[in-house]
From TrEMBL:
Lineage: Bacteria, Pseudomonadati, Bacteroidota, Sphingobacteriia, Sphingobacteriales
Location of the Carbohydrate kinase FGGY C-terminal domain: 247-430
Family assignment from sequence similarity: Belongs to the FGGY kinase family.
Protein name according to UniProt: Carbohydrate kinase
InterPro entries: ATPase_NBD, FGGY_C_2, FGGY_N
Amino acid sequence: MMGIPVVAIFDVGKTNKKLFLFNEHYQIVFEKSARFLETEDEDGDPCENLESLRLSVFDSLHEVFRRTEFDIKAINFTSYGASFVYLNDSGHPLTPLYNYLKQYPQELEKDLHVKYGGAEQFSLTTASPSLGSLNSGLQVYRIKNEKPDVFEQMKYAVHLPQYLSFLVSGQMYSDMTSIGCHTALWDFDAKDYHQWVKDTGITQKLAPIVQGDEVFPATFPGSTYKVGVGLHDSSSALIPYLLNFHEPFVLISTGTWCISLNPFNDSPLTKEQLDKDCLFYLTYAGTPVKASRLFAGYEHEVQTKRIAEHFNTTTARFKSIEIDWSIIDKLKEENSSTSLDTFSKRDLSQYAHVAEAYHGLVIDLVNAQVESTRLILSAQGVKRIFVDGGFSKNNIYMTLLAREFTDAEVYAASMAQATAIGAALVIHQHWNSHPIPNDIIELRYFRGRS
């Protein structure tokens, strides 16, 4: 008897590496998680252990293929971006997987910017704030300049999601979601690689571009499952919303970073937007998504610890604090700043008790979030704002956000493993005989008190 049809999705984060099997209704029927110790590159900087990751992919696949209760129809991958794997003709990595936080040589970056109109013009054209190694295209430029012998041996430079796909399909490709995430490779006006990529010969080292919903046969003899090309994680998490909602919306994906994503705004970046940490992503189909970023989850973590210490309590206490409008009314007058670091400068002794201090923190965070999200709203506005991740479970935050965005419906959206589900949905037609379900995303409507 055949097992149930499933899709296998590898979701590779910086910390956790997960494998999910989803059935045709997008329910998780198997889950496995792994963590690896980091290793070091030749400079002693920490980096991902590429060999452990490679072995883990094969070990995990062998484990699920042995399970007769499942019939694996397709495999796809999603992982963090800004990380290149440099492969030789035999498909073997030529270097460690350099960390995107690795210090970048300032002179090399400056030299490139100067040749192509200066840092501001370069960043506007590529929709990539100057972020050093986080602009992953500059990592390839560094290899070309500092390790010309490695560059010479290089068959292709592929982003991490496409490397994982290559391990199973044997095919080397590039996808738009990885190219589009602040790589400094893409000219968003010309809809092509930027001139610098062509002038330096780097285009020859980049694998052919395919659409993110394409699939390829597996290399293993006798296997019938299809292999997806892999996706950048932030873009993957947007896919369930793109497939379910067609009226203009914004998704605020909250975690350590709170990223506002607007797939309905393709107007060119302005200098002000760039200076305030806006950029473009690309969807799996290659269309632009205007985005703004705020380090708000991290700030919430730091400041809740400060409040807990001051009031001699634990951070668990904040989960049970209900919204109190009398506190909001009392604090609102003085809380008009939109700077993310506002609360960190406040003297905690001004607050009568822990609930008052926490309300003050959330008001400040929401003010900063509203400012950040407004940067990417389009002229025609949006009908809905979806919030997923940690802050979507925070009633005070959600209610205050709804109060600020009076022209849109504000929803807390919850979905188990949105990033992995996005990677499964994008290849739906290749493995799933059912229509895409319309209840994958659970929504909770919030109304701000008028």
